[in-house]
Amino acid sequence: MSQSNADIFEESLLEFFGPVRSYLDDPTVTEIMINGPDKIFVERRGLIAQVPETFPNVRALVAALRNAAQFVGKSVDAEHPVLEGRLPDGSRLAAVLPPAGPGGPYVAIRRFFKEKLTMDKLVQFGAITENACSLLDVFVKCKQNILIAGGTGSGKTSLLNAVSAYVPADERVIVIEDNQELQIQRDHVVTLEAKPPDARGKGEVSIRQLFKTTLRMRPDRIIIGEIRGGEALDLIQAMTSGHGGCLGTLHATYPRDSLTRLETMALMSDIELPLVALRTQIASAINVVAQVTRLRDGSRKLSHISEIQGFDTERNAYVVRDLFVRRILAVDAATGRVESTLEPTGLLPGCYEAIVAYGYDVPKAMHEAARALARRGP
């Protein structure tokens, strides 16, 4: 398809999505949710509201989805009722048609923004503080393995994109994703994307396959867009065998939960491993969890920076130390706006000596909080 023909096809596709076209062009909209032809919701700044636009009927919505499927080289119908792909601007589309989605089709479009979100902008938005940025910068440069955890729509991908700017410019970064979404802020980047099987069940390229190939491509850093399955065990074993500085995201509500989620996914692999051995490997592999959350007012915030310091076999629990924690100060009864603060806990990283050996230090605020904690005593 020539460039001009591709442009025509893209414009034609977007015409089929006419009822939501204005929201696809609106930079304040982060998600578009279509619950059948006559119920459309959009998310702006973390808040969801129904909008008046509708599709004329089910046929019109199905026609839009079939054109979207054609755009990404897939098919969608009663026999293939699930569609995942991207729109021309890169926005992620997920749809479920009847009979798998009675009352549908149901569609969710996660917007893709070409403007890169930097750590400075996250500070301006109040999502993170300069001190927390400084600590993450140190952890990345000292090759700590970092998981960015959070719920759906909490800002995991945005934070990962921004944190990637801390990777030294002379390092080779290999990115593995299900669907290409990350905007890694480095030049020496290799992006690999998983591929589902075709209609005959052939041609699949899984995250696990890509990960194993990645280890032979001389990576300085490995970034997995989202850890979802058995590739978790491969990642854990890579982290414990010298591949430091890995980054990835996964769905979890609290830092400790992210480790148990990682356990569950590692157990999906075809390698049998005693649970105690697996937990010990996870505790050794994951150094830091950066937890993001969406507060009740819709704002997305970094809630924790936590360090993993091992697995206590006697207590059968991971040893997790919070270095930064967000505390809720007040909620405005009229507007619902949440006032909060992200502060150091007074604990210094267990890897502090390694940080100093690399020629870095933690933020001054962490030292001050540590001294204040020492004065208060146990």
Mean pLDDT: 88
Question: Assembly state here?
Answer: single chain
In N-to-C order, the SSE pattern is HHEEEHEEEHHEHEEHEHEHHEEEEHH
- With strands numbered from the N-terminus, the spatial order across the biggest sheet is 9-8-10-11-7-12-13-14-15
Q: What portion of residues is helical?
A: 25-40%
Computed structural class: alpha/beta
Rg on CA atoms, Å: 22 Å
Q: What CATH architecture of the largest domain do you see? A: 3-Layer(aba) Sandwich
Briefly, what CATH class of the largest domain? Alpha Beta
- Biggest sheet details: 9 strands, mixed
Number of strands: 15
Mind telling me the CATH superfamily name of the largest domain?
P-loop containing nucleotide triphosphate hydrolases
Beta-strand proportion: 25-35%
Overview of the molecule:
With 378 residues, this protein is of the alpha/beta class. It folds into two domains: 3-110, Beta-Lactamase; 119-376, 3-Layer(aba) Sandwich (Rossmann fold). The mean pLDDT is 88. A hairpin with a 4-residue loop joins strand 1 (29-35) and strand 2 (40-44). The protein has helices spanning 3-16, 18-24, 58-71, 119-125, 130-141, 156-163, 207-214, 231-239, 255-266, 275-285, 352-357, 364-376; strands at 29-35, 40-44, 47-51, 82-86, 92-96, 106-110, 146-150, 173-177, 189-193, 221-224, 247-251, 288-294, 300-312, 317-331, 338-344. 32% of the residues lie in helices and 26% in strands. The protein has a nine-stranded mixed sheet, with helices on both faces. It has twelve helices and 15 strands. The termini are far apart. The protein is globular, with a radius of gyration of 22 Å.
